[in-house]
Amino acid sequence: MRIVPPEPRTNIFLIDDDDDSRDLFAEVLRRAGFAVDSFNSGEEALTQFEATRPAVVLTDISLAGSVDGIETARRIRRLDPYAALIAVTGHSLDDVKRGGMVFDSFLRKPIGLDELVAAVRYLAEEATTQTLPVLTAAHA
């Protein structure tokens, strides 16, 4: 697989409480040319969001702690209506959709690494135009 780095270097927030998944996804995205900030909780990512304003936020839905991935995405969406949000889940996508349709894209575990890079790259490119629509029930 030949990976072409994005231009300019694009910052990604990666939120996953599973160390192995988080480390693997971060490494793959870094090798693809992205700058990756990794967090093991929604709370931790939210404290850094406004200062960093990443191009894409990739979050697991089932995060440990008081703020799960859906609530993390809702709070980010309130801070930045144009934030590009990707849900990662091992559960049914119906569960994610019931969470309020705050995500722009969904990836179901197990995730192909090429699929991961392609989804992040697409949304990062769309985010630079600031016209990324929020997924609604009409798109489901």
- Compute the CA-based radius of gyration: 14 Å
Average pLDDT for all residues: 84
Low-confidence stretches: 135-140
Number of strands: 5
| Strand coverage percent | 15-25%
Question: How are the strands ordered across the major sheet?
Answer: 2-1-3-4-5
Brief summary of the model shown:
The protein has helices spanning 19-31, 42-52, 69-79, 93-97, 113-127, and strands at residues 11-15, 35-39, 56-60, 84-89, 105-108.
Describe the structure.
By secondary structure, the protein is α/β, with parallel strands linked by helices. The chain has a single domain, classed as Response regulator (Rossmann fold), CATH 3.40.50. Helix 2 runs parallel beside helix 3. The longest helix has 15 residues.
How are the SSEs placed, and which strands pair?
Blueprint: E1 11-15, H1 19-31, E2 35-39, H2 42-52, E3 56-60, H3 69-79, E4 84-89, H4 93-97, E5 105-108, H5 113-127
Parallel strand pairs: 1-2, 1-3, 3-4, 4-5
Characteristics:
alpha/beta; 140 residues; globular
